[in-house]
Design brief:
With about 230 residues, the protein is mainly alpha-helical. The protein is built from ten helices and five strands, in the order E-E-H-H-H-H-H-H-H-E-H-H-E-E-H.
Protein backbone atom coordinates (compact mmCIF):
# COMPACT_ATOMS: atom_id res chain seq x y z
CA UNK A 1 0.00 0.00 0.00
CA UNK A 2 1.22 3.45 -0.82
CA UNK A 3 0.83 6.06 1.88
CA UNK A 4 0.57 9.83 1.76
CA UNK A 5 1.71 10.58 5.30
CA UNK A 6 -1.18 8.63 6.85
CA UNK A 7 -3.63 8.37 3.96
CA UNK A 8 -4.37 5.51 1.60
CA UNK A 9 -3.56 5.57 -2.11
CA UNK A 10 -4.89 2.68 -4.18
CA UNK A 11 -2.20 1.08 -6.37
CA UNK A 12 -2.52 1.77 -10.08
CA UNK A 13 -2.57 -1.90 -11.12
CA UNK A 14 -5.80 -2.97 -9.36
CA UNK A 15 -9.17 -3.50 -11.03
CA UNK A 16 -12.04 -1.15 -10.20
CA UNK A 17 -14.77 -3.52 -11.37
CA UNK A 18 -17.90 -3.87 -9.17
CA UNK A 19 -17.39 -5.90 -6.00
CA UNK A 20 -19.69 -8.87 -5.43
CA UNK A 21 -21.34 -9.45 -2.07
CA UNK A 22 -19.42 -12.69 -1.58
CA UNK A 23 -16.07 -11.03 -2.28
CA UNK A 24 -17.05 -8.27 0.12
CA UNK A 25 -17.94 -10.75 2.88
CA UNK A 26 -14.70 -12.68 2.38
CA UNK A 27 -12.60 -9.52 2.54
CA UNK A 28 -14.37 -8.27 5.67
CA UNK A 29 -14.02 -11.63 7.42
CA UNK A 30 -10.29 -11.94 6.80
CA UNK A 31 -9.76 -8.36 7.91
CA UNK A 32 -11.86 -8.98 11.03
CA UNK A 33 -9.74 -12.01 11.91
CA UNK A 34 -6.58 -9.93 11.70
CA UNK A 35 -8.10 -7.24 13.92
CA UNK A 36 -9.07 -9.92 16.43
CA UNK A 37 -5.54 -11.28 16.46
CA UNK A 38 -4.11 -7.86 17.18
CA UNK A 39 -6.55 -7.43 20.07
CA UNK A 40 -5.64 -10.88 21.39
CA UNK A 41 -1.96 -9.97 21.32
CA UNK A 42 -2.57 -6.64 23.07
CA UNK A 43 -5.10 -7.70 25.72
CA UNK A 44 -5.08 -11.48 25.86
CA UNK A 45 -8.03 -13.71 26.63
CA UNK A 46 -9.20 -11.33 29.36
CA UNK A 47 -10.49 -9.05 26.61
CA UNK A 48 -12.88 -11.71 25.39
CA UNK A 49 -11.01 -12.80 22.28
CA UNK A 50 -11.03 -16.44 21.27
CA UNK A 51 -7.79 -16.56 19.29
CA UNK A 52 -4.09 -16.18 19.98
CA UNK A 53 -1.91 -13.80 18.00
CA UNK A 54 0.05 -15.35 15.16
CA UNK A 55 1.10 -13.75 11.87
CA UNK A 56 0.27 -16.96 10.00
CA UNK A 57 -3.49 -17.28 9.89
CA UNK A 58 -4.75 -20.68 8.73
CA UNK A 59 -8.49 -20.02 8.54
CA UNK A 60 -9.95 -18.92 5.21
CA UNK A 61 -13.42 -17.70 4.31
CA UNK A 62 -15.69 -20.53 3.17
CA UNK A 63 -19.00 -18.88 4.02
CA UNK A 64 -19.94 -21.38 6.73
CA UNK A 65 -22.80 -20.61 9.10
CA UNK A 66 -20.34 -20.19 11.97
CA UNK A 67 -18.26 -17.68 10.02
CA UNK A 68 -21.30 -15.71 8.91
CA UNK A 69 -22.68 -15.50 12.45
CA UNK A 70 -19.35 -14.19 13.69
CA UNK A 71 -18.98 -11.70 10.84
CA UNK A 72 -22.52 -10.32 10.99
CA UNK A 73 -22.34 -9.85 14.76
CA UNK A 74 -19.17 -7.76 14.57
CA UNK A 75 -19.13 -3.98 14.85
CA UNK A 76 -16.80 -3.87 11.86
CA UNK A 77 -19.46 -5.49 9.65
CA UNK A 78 -22.19 -3.22 11.02
CA UNK A 79 -20.00 -0.26 10.14
CA UNK A 80 -18.77 -1.44 6.74
CA UNK A 81 -21.95 -3.00 5.34
CA UNK A 82 -23.83 0.33 4.91
CA UNK A 83 -20.79 1.66 3.04
CA UNK A 84 -20.97 -1.31 0.66
CA UNK A 85 -24.72 -0.90 0.12
CA UNK A 86 -24.32 2.76 -0.73
CA UNK A 87 -21.13 2.43 -2.77
CA UNK A 88 -22.34 -0.43 -4.98
CA UNK A 89 -26.11 0.06 -5.08
CA UNK A 90 -26.73 3.63 -3.97
CA UNK A 91 -28.83 2.51 -1.01
CA UNK A 92 -28.74 5.30 1.52
CA UNK A 93 -28.65 4.13 5.10
CA UNK A 94 -26.60 5.19 8.09
CA UNK A 95 -23.28 5.36 6.25
CA UNK A 96 -22.37 8.67 7.86
CA UNK A 97 -23.61 7.72 11.32
CA UNK A 98 -21.11 8.04 14.17
CA UNK A 99 -18.25 9.15 11.94
CA UNK A 100 -18.31 5.88 10.01
CA UNK A 101 -15.78 6.82 7.35
CA UNK A 102 -13.42 8.31 9.92
CA UNK A 103 -13.40 5.05 11.85
CA UNK A 104 -12.75 2.93 8.78
CA UNK A 105 -9.98 4.97 7.18
CA UNK A 106 -8.00 4.79 10.42
CA UNK A 107 -8.54 1.07 11.07
CA UNK A 108 -7.59 -0.17 7.60
CA UNK A 109 -4.06 1.30 7.48
CA UNK A 110 -3.53 0.21 11.10
CA UNK A 111 -3.79 -3.49 10.19
CA UNK A 112 -2.17 -3.21 6.78
CA UNK A 113 1.14 -4.79 7.83
CA UNK A 114 -0.35 -8.08 8.98
CA UNK A 115 -2.69 -8.19 5.96
CA UNK A 116 0.25 -7.72 3.62
CA UNK A 117 2.23 -10.42 5.44
CA UNK A 118 -0.65 -12.84 4.91
CA UNK A 119 -0.91 -11.84 1.25
CA UNK A 120 -4.54 -10.79 1.61
CA UNK A 121 -4.57 -7.09 0.74
CA UNK A 122 -7.34 -7.09 -1.85
CA UNK A 123 -8.19 -3.36 -1.59
CA UNK A 124 -11.91 -4.18 -1.38
CA UNK A 125 -12.79 -2.05 1.66
CA UNK A 126 -10.48 0.77 0.61
CA UNK A 127 -12.06 0.90 -2.86
CA UNK A 128 -15.57 0.88 -1.39
CA UNK A 129 -14.80 3.86 0.84
CA UNK A 130 -13.55 5.85 -2.14
CA UNK A 131 -16.61 4.80 -4.14
CA UNK A 132 -19.05 5.78 -1.39
CA UNK A 133 -17.52 9.23 -1.04
CA UNK A 134 -17.49 9.71 -4.83
CA UNK A 135 -21.15 8.67 -5.05
CA UNK A 136 -22.00 11.10 -2.26
CA UNK A 137 -20.65 13.99 -4.33
CA UNK A 138 -22.41 12.65 -7.42
CA UNK A 139 -25.78 12.35 -5.64
CA UNK A 140 -25.72 15.61 -3.69
CA UNK A 141 -23.43 17.89 -5.69
CA UNK A 142 -22.00 19.09 -2.40
CA UNK A 143 -18.64 20.72 -2.04
CA UNK A 144 -17.15 18.90 0.94
CA UNK A 145 -14.99 21.92 1.70
CA UNK A 146 -17.96 24.17 2.47
CA UNK A 147 -18.72 25.24 6.02
CA UNK A 148 -22.08 23.48 6.33
CA UNK A 149 -20.61 20.10 5.42
CA UNK A 150 -19.35 17.83 8.18
CA UNK A 151 -15.74 18.77 8.93
CA UNK A 152 -14.74 15.10 8.97
CA UNK A 153 -15.46 14.78 5.24
CA UNK A 154 -13.03 17.59 4.45
CA UNK A 155 -10.36 15.76 6.43
CA UNK A 156 -10.90 12.57 4.43
CA UNK A 157 -10.32 14.34 1.14
CA UNK A 158 -7.29 16.32 2.26
CA UNK A 159 -5.57 13.66 4.33
CA UNK A 160 -6.83 10.12 4.73
CA UNK A 161 -8.14 9.76 1.16
CA UNK A 162 -5.86 11.90 -1.01
CA UNK A 163 -7.17 10.37 -4.26
CA UNK A 164 -10.52 12.06 -3.63
CA UNK A 165 -11.35 15.70 -4.39
CA UNK A 166 -13.56 17.84 -2.18
CA UNK A 167 -15.87 18.95 -5.02
CA UNK A 168 -15.11 17.32 -8.37
CA UNK A 169 -14.24 13.73 -9.31
CA UNK A 170 -10.67 12.58 -9.87
CA UNK A 171 -9.90 10.11 -12.65
CA UNK A 172 -9.45 7.42 -9.99
CA UNK A 173 -12.90 8.14 -8.60
CA UNK A 174 -14.35 8.01 -12.11
CA UNK A 175 -12.71 4.62 -12.69
CA UNK A 176 -14.20 3.29 -9.46
CA UNK A 177 -17.70 4.62 -10.21
CA UNK A 178 -17.59 3.28 -13.78
CA UNK A 179 -16.41 -0.16 -12.67
CA UNK A 180 -13.45 0.11 -15.04
CA UNK A 181 -10.81 -2.59 -15.29
CA UNK A 182 -8.08 -0.01 -14.78
CA UNK A 183 -7.37 3.70 -14.66
CA UNK A 184 -5.92 3.62 -18.18
CA UNK A 185 -9.37 3.22 -19.75
CA UNK A 186 -10.52 6.44 -18.08
CA UNK A 187 -7.48 8.34 -19.28
CA UNK A 188 -8.11 7.03 -22.80
CA UNK A 189 -11.74 8.19 -22.59
CA UNK A 190 -10.59 11.79 -22.26
CA UNK A 191 -9.12 11.51 -25.79
CA UNK A 192 -12.14 9.83 -27.39
CA UNK A 193 -12.96 11.80 -30.56
CA UNK A 194 -16.67 10.92 -30.67
CA UNK A 195 -17.66 11.12 -27.01
CA UNK A 196 -14.78 12.33 -24.85
CA UNK A 197 -14.88 12.51 -21.09
CA UNK A 198 -14.46 16.25 -20.62
CA UNK A 199 -12.03 17.26 -17.90
CA UNK A 200 -10.89 20.41 -16.17
CA UNK A 201 -7.53 21.16 -14.62
CA UNK A 202 -6.90 22.49 -11.15
CA UNK A 203 -3.22 23.11 -10.57
CA UNK A 204 -1.73 19.78 -11.68
CA UNK A 205 -4.89 17.77 -11.04
CA UNK A 206 -7.10 16.47 -13.85
CA UNK A 207 -10.72 16.50 -12.66
CA UNK A 208 -14.27 15.86 -13.85
CA UNK A 209 -17.20 18.02 -12.77
CA UNK A 210 -20.21 16.33 -11.19
CA UNK A 211 -22.40 17.33 -14.15
CA UNK A 212 -19.99 15.81 -16.67
CA UNK A 213 -19.54 12.70 -14.53
CA UNK A 214 -23.31 12.11 -14.50
CA UNK A 215 -23.51 12.50 -18.28
CA UNK A 216 -20.63 10.15 -19.00
CA UNK A 217 -21.45 7.52 -16.37
CA UNK A 218 -25.05 7.25 -17.61
CA UNK A 219 -23.65 5.47 -20.67
CA UNK A 220 -21.69 2.89 -18.67
CA UNK A 221 -23.36 -0.46 -18.07
CA UNK A 222 -21.45 -1.19 -14.86
CA UNK A 223 -22.49 2.06 -13.21
CA UNK A 224 -25.60 1.73 -11.05
CA UNK A 225 -27.23 5.12 -10.37
CA UNK A 226 -28.63 5.73 -6.92
CA UNK A 227 -32.40 5.20 -6.60
CA UNK A 228 -34.36 8.44 -6.76
Amino acid sequence: MKNSNYGVILPSHISYEPISEEAFKASCYLLLMDIERLVAWAFGESHGTSVHFTPDREEEWIGSEEQQVKLFASEFWKTMNPVYAYAERGEQGNMMHDDTLGYLVQVLPAVFGIREYNGEVDWVCETLIYKALARLKLDTGRDLDEDEVEVELVTYCSGWLPLAHHKHLTLQEMAILAGAKNIRSIRNATYDKKNPLRVIKENRNVLVTVEEAKRWLAQKSKFIPSPC
